Amino acid sequence: MNINAKKIISVIALATVSSFAEWDYYTVLDEHQGQARIKANYWYNGDFHSTSFDLNARYTVVKGLELSLTGLGYQLFADPNDKTKEGDGFKDFSVGAKYAFNPNFSVFLDANIPAGKKEISSQEFSLKGGVQWFLPISEQFGIGNEFGLTVPFKHDGVQRGLVADYGFEFYYAFSSGISPFTGFVFTSQLTDSKNEDKSESGTGASNISFWAGISYNVNKNVNLTLYTDVEYAAHGAYQSGYIFQTTFSF
What we know:
The chain is mainly beta. The protein has a single domain (about 5-250), classed as monomeric porin ompg (Porin). About 5% of the residues lie in helices and about 60% in strands. The chain is built from one helix and 15 strands; from the N terminus they run αβββββββββββββββ. It has one helix at about 5-20; strands spanning about 35-45, 50-60, 65-80, 90, 95-100, 105-115, 125-135, 140-150, 165-170, 180-190, 195, 200, 205-220, 220-235, 240-250. It has a twelve-stranded antiparallel barrel with strand order 1-2-3-5-6-7-8-9-10-13-14-15. Strands 11-12 form a two-stranded antiparallel ribbon. A hairpin with a 2-residue loop joins β13 (about 205-220) and β14. The longest helix has 17 residues, at about 5-20. It is globular and about 55 Å long. The relative contact order is 0.16. This is MetA-pathway of phenol degradation.
């Protein structure tokens, strides 16, 4: 696998883990309610493209406390210059907890589990904590917000710096069950990464993501969502993607 392909795989892996490790920017479900989600992702960057399928689930065990599993899936990576299939394999996933003090304010903690194949895994255990707040403008229109801080743990002699993110998403829910939405998240590395030789780098490295899509409630238990996402990193790497997901409520 060539260097460019490895770079693109790394960008895809880190972006998909960091952008939405938590379920969403909104409040938790009611007590003893849950959701299961099947998610199909297609990402591309020039000649490189990736297709993956994820399983996700969340459940509110007691009032206000939600547990989640996100990103458990398999990736297929296409590189026209490499037929080794090294970019194919299971990905990292996240487990998390979110607690809602009230319907409009929550705190969360997620853990990235580096269980994926070496070539596509971040190879790094990390914790992401933060706060989320919801602004209900009207019965149909709302804005979800998040501020998060990711703390990576040392791996293979590299200690990556702290990473902060701020994001928001707003939607408008029509009575027909259709809800268009759009969002943005800005991610920035706050402190330098350190190697075994004590060299430092990375402060100020950033990533910007925009997405927009539409969601449709087929009935009270099934929701279909399609959206597009564009990721851009300060060092010039970028990717675009399309995501389709089916969510089952129980």
